[in-house]
Amino acid sequence: MVTVEFLGPIGLEDMHVEASTLGDVARILQNDERVSAWLATSAVAVNDELTSNLSKPLKNGDKVSLLPPVCGG
Amino acid sequence: MVTVEFLGPIGLEDMHVEASTLGDVARILQNDERVSAWLATSAVAVNDELTSNLSKPLKNGDKVSLLPPVCGG
Amino acid sequence: MVEIFEGSLPVEAILARWYGASLGRNEGAFIPFVGTVRAEGGIEALSFDIYEPILARWYEAWQTKAAALGARLAMAHSRGDVPVHTSSYIAAVFSPKRRVALELIDAFVEDFKAQAPIWKYDIIDGKRIYARERSTALVGSGILGGTQ
Amino acid sequence: MVEIFEGSLPVEAILARWYGASLGRNEGAFIPFVGTVRAEGGIEALSFDIYEPILARWYEAWQTKAAALGARLAMAHSRGDVPVHTSSYIAAVFSPKRRVALELIDAFVEDFKAQAPIWKYDIIDGKRIYARERSTALVGSGILGGTQ
Questions:
Q1: Does A52 touch chain C (CB under 8 A)?
Q2: Average pLDDT over chain D, rounded to whole?
Q3: What total number of domains does chain D contain?
């Protein structure tokens, strides 16, 4: 199981999903209408490190974070 | 008579000279060895306005200021 | 690390503390950028979410970049509500060299606006509304939605 | 007008005062540049002469330039001796817009270093020595020495 967390304005509780790559996470989230609209503009971190590699392998206990568009200051 | 003042590190008392243009002031100062070495690097103001016009007419009571190289801050 | 405050920043105290701590370091130039909430669009306040773990990594990367130039950074940011005419962030550069300091504060503030994991909301009539149209997608965004 | 202080600047008080006065003005960005005397070359202090009438004209021209961009400037500078590890000047920009503020503080500080009628001296062993090699001739210099 990996934990998926939704940062900032996405406003969803953490999800716990079976996934061996980020690609698996993508397929799950694309089919969830509460979050699918955020995917095109959100960045992804695995264990707090930003990544753009969809084939990145995931292991049990990993944390995947979705970061929607930012605006500090 | 015009007053010539020497700012910053030049360190001379004001001079009072007869001059009808800045060119007249230039000739007087070029012949004064206390100040001649400063002329090549100093800017000139007439009545506190910087000028680079040597034929600028001067009238009685005008103030000519010499400003050597600056370094604020 | 980035200093995070609940609500508006105590700007005078932060500036005094950072300035005081820099005096013995022979740094020469200190440039803080102070950001204050403007009254516009009928807002009462801005409000901020911060994700600290990734903010810390972003900030450490910038400290490393600054150190390579002989410079140093400091940063403070608000979490939660920040009323208009109070301040939500300060980014600062310390450097022995003027040019380094002026170029670094520009690059640091711009990258902060584009890349720091902070989300902004308008508070209007007591409601907290995501400032979507003023927000910027992080570099590398969209990989999870690639097939749609 | 430029605020002139005898000796070191009370930096914390100046920053607090300028910041406080800006809050009601909806300016958004406040960027002060604080210059502190570095210990180098065996100096005990720097020392400054200022010619106020021409400094005032230079500064008013900059305020006009800033106003055309919707921005505002402030400046403080020391006269006389400023010991190492204390501060001799602050130049600041206030603006509703971040880009305007960042570009203006850079241009203002650089022009100040090159054009303001201020003369710097090193204090070494109690002697006041003109910092000739770090000084810059004003634009238009040399007209009186043209024929030599």
A1: yes
A2: 96
A3: 1
Burial B43-71 (b: 16+ CB within 10 A, else e): bbbbeeebeeebebebeeebebbbbbbbb
Res. D147: pLDDT tops 60: no
Q: Containing domain of residue C90, as a range? A: 3-132
Summarize pLDDT for D29-58 with one digit per residue, the tens. 999 999 999 999 999 999 999 999 999 999
Asked if the structure places residue C77 within a domain, the reply is yes
Residues of B in contact with D144 (CB under 8 A): 22, 25-26, 29-30, 39, 42, 44, 54, 66
Specify the amino acid at residue C68.
A
Specify the CATH number for the domain of residue D80.
3.90.1170.40
If we measure between CA atoms, which residue out of C30, B42, B70 comes closest to residue D121? B70
All domains of chain B in start order, with CATH:
2-67 (3.10.20.30)
Reported as a single tens digit per residue, the pLDDT across B43-73 is: 999 999 999 999 989 999 999 999 999 999 8
Q: Which two tokens stand for residue D91?
A: 């130049």
**Chain D contact present for C16, CB below 8 A:** yes
**Tokens of residue B45, six digits:** 């103001």
Residue D93 sits at φ, ψ, to 5 deg, of: -120, 140
Q: Which among D1, D35, D3, D33 has a CA at the least distance from the CA of D105?
A: D33
Rounded Cα distance between C79 and B68, Å, is 52
Place of tokens 């292991």: A59
Burial class (CB in 10 A: 0-12, 13-18, 19+), C11: buried
